[in-house]
Design goal:
alpha+beta; Jelly Rolls; four-stranded antiparallel beta sheet; 8 strands; ion transport
C-alpha cells in the first residue's frame, strides 16, 4: 500500500482486515495476504428488500455479511423459494472466486445489511502475488461451500419431513 492512502482508508482496511481474519476462509492465513484482500475489497450497504445479486447474472464476486441478514433465494417452477437466511459472518457467492458461471440463486437483504465484497479479479491478484497460498485458500473456499451445502440439505430434509415425507416415499432424486 502506498503512502498516499488516507487515514480513513487505513482505518477501513484495518477494520476489514479484522473482519476477514475472523472468517472461515481467512482464519490462519498470513497477515500480509489478509491485508491485501482487505485493501482490494469494497463495502456496500443494502436496504431491506434490495437485491444483492440476481439468479442468472454473471457471478463475479464473493460476499461477506458484516451486519444485517440476507435471504438466499431460488426460482423454481415460477416460485421464489427462500433456501437459507444468512447472518453476519456468513460468506455467500464464494464459488465465483474459483469459476465463471451464472448465479443459480438470488440474494436479497431482509434488513439494512452491510456487505464486504471481494471480486474474482481481486482474489486472482492476491493469489498471483502469493501463489504458494493458492491451494490452501482455495481448499478453504471449497470447504465453506461444502459446509453450506450440508446445512442447506439438512434444512431441506427437515422441511420435507415436517411436510409429511416418509422414509418409504422412495428416493428423493432419481
Amino acid at each position: 500500500m502506498s503512502s498516499s492512502t488516507t487515514p480513513e482508508c487505513n482505518c477501513r482496511i484495518t477494520l476489514d482486515f479484522d473482519i476477514l481474519r475472523q472468517s472461515q476462509v481467512f482464519a490462519g492465513a498470513p497477515a500480509e495476504v489478509v491485508k491485501l484482500f482487505a485493501y482490494l475489497s469494497r463495502h456496500r450497504t443494502y436496504q431491506p428488500g434490495a437485491s444483492i445479486l440476481l439468479q442468472g447474472d454473471k457471478a463475479e464476486n464473493c460476499y461477506l455479511i458484516i451486519s444485517g441478514e440476507v435471504d438466499i433465494i431460488t426460482r423454481h417452477r415460477d416460485q421464489e423459494i427462500v433456501v437459507q437466511r444468512l447472518r453476519p459472518g456468513s460468506f455467500f457467492g464464494e464459488l465465483a472466486l474459483l469459476a465463471r458461471f451464472d448465479w443459480f440463486f438470488s440474494a436479497r437483504a431482509t434488513q439494512e445489511t452491510e456487505i464486504l465484497i471481494i471480486s474474482r479479479e481481486g482474489f486472482e491478484k492476491v493469489l498471483s502475488k502469493y501463489p504458494e497460498k493458492r491451494d490452501k485458500i482455495t481448499e478453504k473456499v471449497i470447504q465453506l461451500r461444502i459446509s453450506r451445502f450440508e446445512n442447506q440439505t439438512a434444512n431441506l430434509l427437515d422441511r420435507l419431513l415436517e411436510a409429511g415425507l416418509s422414509a418409504d416415499s422412495g428416493p428423493l432424486i432419481g
